[in-house]
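Colleagues,

Please find the record for the two-part complex below.
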Amino acid sequence: METYYDPHDLSDFASVGECAPELWKKFSEWYSSVFKEGALSEREKALIALAVAHAVQCPYCIDAFTKSSLEKGADMEQMTEAVHVASAIRGGASLVHGVQMKKIAEKIGL
Amino acid sequence: MAVRHRGHGMDDHGLKSFSQSLKESGLYPLTSRGVTTLQVNVGALCNQSCLHCHVDAGPRRGEVMPKRVMESCLRVVDECDIPVVDITGGAPEMNPDYRWFIEECVRLGSRVKTRTNLTVLVEDGFEDMPEFFARNRVEVIASLPYYTERTTDRMRGPGTFRASLDALKRLNRAGYGSGGNGLVLNLAYNPCGAYLPPSQASIERDFRRELEGRFGIRFTNLFTITNMPLGRFRDFLEGSGNMRSYMERLVGLFNPAAAANVMCRETLSVGWDGTLFDCDFNQMLGLVCAHGAPSHIDDLDRETLDCRTIVTGMHCYGCTAGAGSSCGGEVA
């Protein structure tokens, strides 16, 4: 069955640098710096990335950061809560626009 | 009596051989740097059947080291002046001569370490073990895969987390983990699946925060130990279709600095029947000491063992991936 997503594509990520090698180099250096231990631990950063991966619904990121979160010492409970955080923000972002809906409806309504 | 050897080495899955990785790093052949630790596996009998166990230990295993083999070990420790004796199993406490062996090691002036699964310490007949350990100044290395009930019980069986906490509190009451009195309580962390452990420092911080904050439990240090593709863990890898990807990860993360410091370079492993191995993992594969080194404790030749060539295989990648892994945690 043909599909847009092939899990093996994740291992070929670096190939996007073939036609713009300098940009890829800058991206990958910045990317690896972002995830180093800093004010936040590597585990906390992996969980944030996992949550964002669910918010933007990137299957590559969900694959990579599920494994990364486990390898940084998170467990299923922490990871599930992170997904809920992403869901709450996405849900909340839709719901808060309902204030605008109410204002418009109240302006034009009797 | 159930006695098992699970074959002689493992399939390379078409990946680079461990010997080749050693050659490319200038470490071939891998040799001993002198035996400073005698690791004695006193048997595969255990009160648990943990999913990650490389020994395939459990309540139905019949291999129990007899006293005469322990006597041979003591003779070697004395005559060869080996400073450290590291006792493992199974659940070593379940060997009927375990306490006697520890007392004899202490009488010889050895530094004694013991592995424990913790839950055995709350079973009938073992409740006084923390005080026994403390009297003999034994370094206790306790397995605890995680600081939550859900993850620990998944790996070790229902009720094991609560029993482990109970045992840790008993060890704390006996003086372990409080610092300053020389009673060392180290924890051993294994990942709960087909992935590598986190950095030892970071997971130790998490464990310290959670165990002390939630339960008032203290410990000295935490060791991260990579799951070896052997025993029951290998069964899981093969059954779940994770074997190849796990091996690819281990091979891909081969670290020459870790390989240079693998524990087999300073440790000699003794099986329940006195057979000699380069490590506990080789023991589970039946890979006896070779390359001219003696294969039984009664034939021990210190000079030959101190400079022996170590028997290696694909499973060795488990000790050399990333920061490396050993019975004492990271090595690089």
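The CA atoms of residues 12 and 314 of chain B lie 6 Å apart.

Comments are welcome before we finalize the supplementary table.
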